[in-house]
Structure formats: structure tokens, C-alpha cells
């Protein structure tokens, strides 16, 4: 069957290759974890989302092949339909729509207790990213432990399950950490970035009843500003109003969700957070970027204001479930809005070069491959 793969360590090596079709009895990651007897699920791939991570893996910035091989099948944002289940699987059945989590457990205590999303190990095993093959292929097998059901009525948004899990986890982490305050009722949030992560975070914070201001660079109106406003949030162009000016105009935020991919913005956000507030960092910033801030001022304000920085990456099955619940709630509350994030479909695995090219496209909010109908 067809798969889109790279040769890790070799830049621009993305290619289409033929790999054996998986069977229910296969062990997809024998070097990491074993599927217990009867607990495997075979999934037909329907749609796979791609993002900057896939581009960076193709640029050979990171990513490794599973041991003993030279290639890595990429793609970590999965959506498919169950074809076959093992004799001890009760959670899903053939025909169900599903997504599959990304990280597989290593050996740390966190991995052992099911929190592989916060593994204590330096080496992590992620499908389509590091040491485990991904989902840009026609079918895949995994342990039902990592398979998350998507309601049939939400299948048009199923490919957003993984990015939604990232946002749902990050927000939940902030709320959990803020229980330190005993009472925390955030009213105002700034979301920095209006890409897929910023927009899904905007929706989730609106669903929690916050007044949300979502910042990106370009002045509206355009699709990102329209989606933001359709969620009942306010879109702000940082070219027209800086974050600091916005805070002066509307008040300092109790919560900031940072998702611009820009290291300077990560630190500038520290200058505007309100007292007792939480700043969430989700950006993954590659390369080197020196940033100059008034460290003494930030330190003083953060200590005297009891402010909190929460960093968050990845998500386990519970976060996928939370993300899917938020997508469902969002679809009922703001019908048809979230599907506007799905801007650039690619017709089939053969079009892998078009897929890579679209990842450079400024207007592309979400590029995804329609693997099967
Ligand atoms: N933690 C995790 O598990 C996780 C998972 C997935 C992604 N990420 C990271 O999350 C970040 C966002 O991902 P994405 O896919 O949503 O990215 P994206 O599509 O590239 O969106 C980035 C957004 O940030 C805005 N932006 C960039 N620089 C800015 C600046 N200086 N001031 C204000 N806005 C700025 C962009 O504005 P314009 O729209 O005007 O261009 C855009 O709206 C990335 O760093 C990604 O690596 C993290």
C-alpha cells in the first residue's frame, strides 16, 4: 500500500513508497510497546492533517526512523474508520470513526501511569514524528488504548481531533494549575495567533464563557478574523494594535494562550498578563531568536502578582476525548464555523508534493490529505 515517508536526516527526502499493508495481528512498534493479545484495532485511513512539524521533519530538523529501518512514514493527525477489531476490544467496532493518539509510552513513571504525554524521558516515541511510523498511509494498526472514538455526526471535523487535543490539554493544564489560588474565575483571555491552534483555543475559551481577544498580524477582514468573530471573540491585528495597547484598552488578561510560533511574542506576553493570571505557552520555536525584555520588571511583576507560566505539548487519550468533546460543543454552539478551518484538502497520497507545497502557503489554515472517501 502507499505511504508518504521521509529519510530522516536527509533534507527534502519526502517520497511516496510502497509498504506492506498491516494486519490485525501485527505489532506496529515492537521496540516501544506491545499490543496485548486481542486488543488490536485495524483502521482505514480517511483523512490526515499535516502541519509545520511535517515540514520540519522533511527539512531534517528532527525525526528518526524506527530502529532497523531507513524511512519514517510521516503524519500524526489521524482520522479513520475501524475495519477490524481484536477479540478483546469492546470500546470500538468496525465502521466507527476514530482518531489515534501520537505518543507511545517510554519507561518513566509518568509513562507507566498512562501520562506518556508528560514523559520524564528525553527520548520520546511519537507516531509520524520520532521512532514510530505515522499515519500518512492507507491503513494502520494500533492498541485500542490509543484509539479514540469520534461521533459519526462529527466526522467532518474528525481530522481536527489531534490539534483540538493539544488546545484542550493546554487549557485544562492551566485550570488545574490555577487551583493553587483556591478561587480562579478568569474573565478575559488573549489568544496570540490565529492559526489552527489559536482558533481552536479561541473556541474553547469562548465555550468557557471568557471574553476573548485573538491576535494575529494581518488586518482583517479575512477568513481568520471571520472565524474568530463567528466564535464571538474579537480579532485584533498586531499591526494595528499591539498587545500592550490592547491590554491598556480592554484591561490585562487573566489568561493568555500563546500560539504564534514567535519567541518574542512568548516573552512579550509576560509583560501584559494580569495579577494571578496564567500564561500558556504552546509554540514550538525552532532555530535561534534572541529576545530583549526588561527582566527585572517582569520578575518583580510576576512575583508580586503571583503569575503562572504553563507549558504544554502533546496529549494522551483523555485530552483527545476532551478535544473531541469541545469540537462537538463548539459545533452545536457555533454551527459550521470550525469546518472553515479546513481550508486546503489534498486529493490522495499521490499528491504529496502538493501537500508539502501547501505547507508553505500563508493562506492555508489546515492542510489535510483525503486518503480515502
Ligand atoms: N504544544 C503543542 O503540542 C503544539 C502542537 C501543535 C502546534 N504547536 C505550535 O503551536 C504554534 C501555532 O501553530 P499553528 O499551526 O496554529 O501555527 P500557524 O498556522 O503558523 O499560526 C500562527 C499564527 O500566529 C500569528 N503570528 C505569528 N507571528 C505573530 C506575531 N509576531 N504577532 C502576532 N501574531 C503572530 C500568525 O499571524 P497571521 O495569521 O497574521 O500570519 C498566525 O495567525 C506553532 O509554533 C506550532 O509549532 C504546538
UniProtKB/TrEMBL annotation:
Superkingdom of this protein's organism: Bacteria
Protein name as annotated: Glucose 1-dehydrogenase
Domain Glucose dehydrogenase C-terminal: residue ranges: 156-357
InterPro entries hit by this protein: ADH-like_N (IPR013154), ADH_Zn_CS (IPR002328), Glu_dehyd_C (IPR031640), GroES-like_sf (IPR011032), NAD(P)-bd_dom_sf (IPR036291)
CC cofactor: Zn(2+)
Domain Alcohol dehydrogenase-like N-terminal: start-end pairs: 40-152
Signal peptide as annotated in the record: none
Organism: Fimbriiglobus ruber
Record PROSITE patterns: ADH_ZINC
UniProt entry keywords in alphabetical sequence: Metal-binding, Oxidoreductase, Zinc
Pfam families membership: ADH_N, Glu_dehyd_C
